[in-house]
Write a structure and sequence with these properties.
The chain has about 500 residues and is an alpha+beta fold. It is about 30% helix and about 25% strand. The longest helix has 23 residues, at about 170-190.
């Protein structure tokens, strides 16, 4: 067994742990019957009588004064002060209190009263150690009142030790309450409109539905290579073929790509598909859904985020892909050849060598256009080269009936009039296979079974995918995707 190096503070806590056990106190309890949260105990105060309460939580401040001790206990609803007197608790029980440290999890029983300074407090008649904290949480230096404040500032440590981050930073926990409320609203919104929530395979024999590199694994019993899904799209559309006319899934996708402030290899998407609809219907649905969740969470559709006022009220501006590229990059995609696209990309620092035409167009848009899309905006009618799963635009087959929803310069949603012609779909897959053979590792692979499904007949269908993480980033005003993922991907710890 390897030797564990402990600090003096940790050694002192372990000495207190042993002292508790020497007194017959079990420092890691099985349960505690709580009658009130901290907020409920505060609300239970009655000037006419001391209300009895049983409260549990983490010790966040501790101030001993001889035969009396003041402390603060915190739970998810807030903090409440504790007042412990030796002559009320008893000598042996008070010795246990003197072995406590900030960070310990306690259960207390007592009565609520107001101190002479006006603070609502629990006069403790019993204190139970529920979990002894053997490491000091990084609360930072206590102030004159003994109140500790979160001091875990290093981002790498915060992400790696999320439990400590959550424990000392209540505002970080609030981000995930926003996330949970958002996901709950999306489910209610879709359920009320007749959508059925389904679950599709995470391990897939053929990956597809997006331009991305997959994670690869091996199923030993089947002796078969499998892939973590990069999207749920192709399986959800199989459901539409099978007669489920409105389906959605909120789940994890996995893409073997770099990590930056907008990308994590594991992320959460909402994908939905509606039979007998097109991308115009998806625009209306996306606007209604997103503006509705903003209104629910914040009571208004106008938000100030990162110094920008965002108005999510419907309708959002609708701008075409070609017009935006022409305006901001000075490139007319209808006539520009690959050489012109390469010059535009090279001028922005990217290396265009070996890029396909689709990749060049995408790079031009990302470099010149995306940063300018600050207000909630719908960008529609993408070049057909970028959209192997979308129907051609009615009246102009060089374009696809596809839109993306942008805000603060980032893509939040992607939607199509779904391609339902099996022969066209097979030809698109063939083009992707050729691009892959030419070196594009993110090009899609052939999926014969999906084409077979289309041959049974996919009704006209509108589909949309919404990035949950990126939307939470904006609403909770977090600058990195890691800040809205409970346990983000990190490099190996040294």
């Amino acid at each position: 067994m390897s030797e564990v190096v402990r600090s003096r503070v940790e050694l002192a806590r372990r000495e207190a742990l042993q002292a508790l056990r020497d007194r017959g106190v079990e420092p890691f309890a099985y349960r505690f019957q709580r009658s009130h949260t901290a907020a409920e105990a505060l609300a239970a105060f009655d000037a006419e009588r001391e209300a009895p309460v049983r409260v549990a939580g983490r010790l966040v401040a501790l101030r001993g004064h001889g035969k009396t001790t003041f402390a603060h206990l915190e739970d998810p609803t807030g903090r409440i002060q504790l007042y412990v007197r030796r002559d009320e608790l008893g000598a042996e029980a008070y010795e246990v209190v003197q072995l406590l440290h900030v960070g310990d999890v306690l259960g207390v029983e007592g009565a609520v009263f107001r101190t002479r300074t006006g603070e609502i407090t629990i006069r403790c008649r019993a204190v139970t150690v529920l979990a002894k904290a053997l490491r000091p949480l990084p609360y930072g230096k206590a102030d004159a009142e003994g109140e500790a404040h979160g001091a875990l500032a290093d981002p790498e440590t915060r992400y790696r030790q999320r439990y400590a981050d959550f424990a000392v930073h209540p505002a970080v926990r609030d981000v995930f309450r926003v996330r949970a409320a958002l996901i709950g609203y999306l489910r209610r919104f879709l359920d009320e409109r007749g959508f059925l929530e389904v679950e599709t395979p995470v391990l897939q024999p053929i990956y597809g539905g997006a331009m991305a590199r997959p994670f690869v694994t091996q199923h030993h019993a089947l002796d078969r290579r499998l892939y973590l899904r990069i999207a749920t799209e192709l399986y959800l559309k199989r459901c539409i073929v099978g007669g489920f006319e409105r389906v959605y899934e909120i789940g994890k996708d996995f893409r073997n790509e770099g990590i930056d402030r907008l990308h994590n290899p594991e992320f959460t998407m909402l994908e939905l598909y509606q039979a007998y609809a097109d991308y115009e219907d998806m625009m209306l649905l996306t606007e209604e859904m997103v503006s509705g969740v903003v209104q629910l969470l914040y009571g208004a559709t106008r938000l100030d985020r990162f110094g920008v006022t965002l108005d999510f009220a419907r309708p959002w501006p609708r701008l075409t892909y070609r017009d935006l590229v022409r305006t901001h990059a000075g490139v007319d995609l209808a006539s520009a050849d690959d050489a012109a696209l390469r010059r535009a990309v090279a001028g922005r620092g990217s290396d265009p060598a070996g890029m396909s035409r689709a990749k060049l167009i995408d790079e031009v848009f990302k470099e010149f256009v995306e940063p300018r899309l600050q207000a909630p905006t719908i960008v529609l009618d993408f070049p057909i080269e970028l959209s192997p799963l979308a129907k051609p635009k009615r009246g102009d087959p060089t374009l696809a009936e596809r839109f993306e929803f942008f805000a603060l310069g980032r893509e939040l949603a992607n939607a199509f009039s779904e391609l339902n012609d099996p022969d066209d779909q097979r030809a698109r897959f063939d083009a992707q296979v050729a691009a892959r053979a030419a070196g594009d590792q993110e090009a899609q692979v052939m999926d014969d079974d999906y084409v077979r499904a289309l041959e049974y007949g996919l009704p006209p269908t509108g589909g949309m995918g919404l990035g949950i993480d990126r939307l939470v980033m904006i609403l909770a005003e977090q600058s990195s995707i890691r800040d809205v993922i409970l346990f983000p991907m990190l490099r190996a710890e040294e």
